[in-house]
Write a structure and sequence with these properties.
Layout (H helix, E strand, L loop, with lengths): L1 H17 L2 H25 L1 H26 L4 H58 L7 H30 L2 H26 L6 H37 L5 H11 L5 H16 L1 H21 L1 H4 L8 H50 L1
Helix pairs in contact: 3-4, 3-5, 3-6, 4-5, 4-9, 7-8, 7-10, 7-12, 8-9, 9-10
């Protein structure tokens, strides 16, 4: 019976091999769409749990580096995990008691001042329009300025809502916060065994290759991107303070946070320059010019050494990955989009090399 079953499978495989490739792809496409739809339904149903699990994994992934550093110097892993965990909690508490109130206060003040700045910018644009009309220049910026300012306010409120939504989901409750901490410590202790068990389901040696590929993409992206974001945020904050920019701490940290995402630095700098232009055109141009210079120095001098084009992805595919990640999982999806896209590219390359190898072996036979 078993041989008959194998024979039927082999016959089915041979029949599929004879079919045109376009027909095979046409038959597979509805299945892919159906599986994708089921995945989205399941993801949205368990989104809060998945967010907590992914957050704990990311924390464990980052904290694992100082833990490994301590263990390489002779410390026991349990003690190293306890020390690093306590240090991380202490750091979060210090930042929460010092930086967080200042940033939240500046953000609330920015929201309160924004209508005044918008009105001031409208007056500046009207003055410019009257000046242009007096010289019979075909320029009318009033309507465009109103649309841009309204759009900027909407995007700012939308982004703020997403950020606070992610924070509320992940650490909004005491239970979730404690659960993340417990899961992070568990992953530091037993994470390797957990992932070993998951990748054992894949045929070898592909399971080991997939795990190595996943680890490499996340390592290169998060370590490099986090270092770049820290440098960018610190540099921008210092520059904004020296320029006496209002809400310098909020804007500097905002640029650093947006630097975690591809193209985020340019978007945040443009938004800050536009916000400052609402208050004063000269201040907006000055902020934009200094910020662009700092961005170019960091991205052209430091970023290539940190990132080095690790994904090998075309910028178009990076944008598509970011759009899909934002649509599926919001801010968390933006964080995971690029390393996952790099991982999928590596998987596709691995499958392609495997198929080429099989084809070459068959041709030799």
């Amino acid at each position: 019976m078993r041989e008959d079953g194998l024979t039927k499978v082999q016959r089915a495989v041979k029949v599929l091999e004879r079919l045109p490739r376009w027909l095979i792809l046409g038959l597979a496409f509805p299945l892919l769409v159906l599986n994708g739809w089921v995945f989205l339904v399941v993801f949205h149903y368990f989104q809060s749990l998945i967010t907590i699990f992914v957050t704990a994994n990311l924390l464990a992934f980052v904290l694992n580096y100082p833990v490994n550093l301590l263990t390489s110097r002779g410390a026991k892993r349990n003690r190293a995990i306890l020390f690093v965990g306590l240090l991380a909690v202490l750091l979060v508490l210090v930042l929460g008691l010092t930086l967080a109130p200042a940033v939240i206060g500046q953000f609330n003040e920015l929201i309160a001042r924004l209508p005044t700045w918008i009105e001031s910018s409208s007056q500046q644009v009207q003055i410019f329009d009257r000046w242009a009309a007096g010289r019979k220049l075909p320029v009318n910026l009033t309507g465009l300025a109103i649309q841009l300012t309204e759009r900027l306010a909407e995007q700012l409120q939308s982004l703020t809502g997403q950020v606070f939504n992610v924070i509320a989901i992940t650490i909004g409750g005491v239970f979730n916060f404690v659960f993340i901490l417990v899961m992070t410590f568990y992953l530091l202790l037993q994470g390797d065994r957990l992932w070993d068990g998951i990748f054992l389901w894949f045929p070898q040696p592909y399971g080991s290759l997939l795990r190595q590929l996943l680890r490499q993409n996340f390592h290169n992206y998060f370590i490099g991107q986090a270092s770049l974001a820290a440098i960018m945020g610190t540099s921008m904050t210092i520059a904004f303070v020296l320029l006496q920019v209002p809400f310098a701490l909020l804007f500097g940290l905002g640029v650093g946070f947006m630097a975690l995402f591809p193209f985020g630095t340019g978007v945040s700098i443009s938004a800050i320059g536009l916000l400052m232009a609402l208050k004063s055109v000269w201040l907006g141009l000055k902020v934009l010019g200094v910020a662009v210079v700092i961005q170019q120095i960091i991205e052209n001098g430091i970023a290539p050494r940190l990132l080095g084009g690790f994904t090998g992805l075309n910028p178009v595919w990076i944008l598509i990955a970011l759009l899909i990640g934002a649509q599926v999982a919001g801010i968390l999806g933006l964080l995971l989009a690029v390393p996952l896209a790099g991982f999928l590219k590596g998987v596709a390359s691995l499958m392609r090399s495997h198929l080429l190898e099989e084809h070459s072996l068959e041709s030799l036979k």
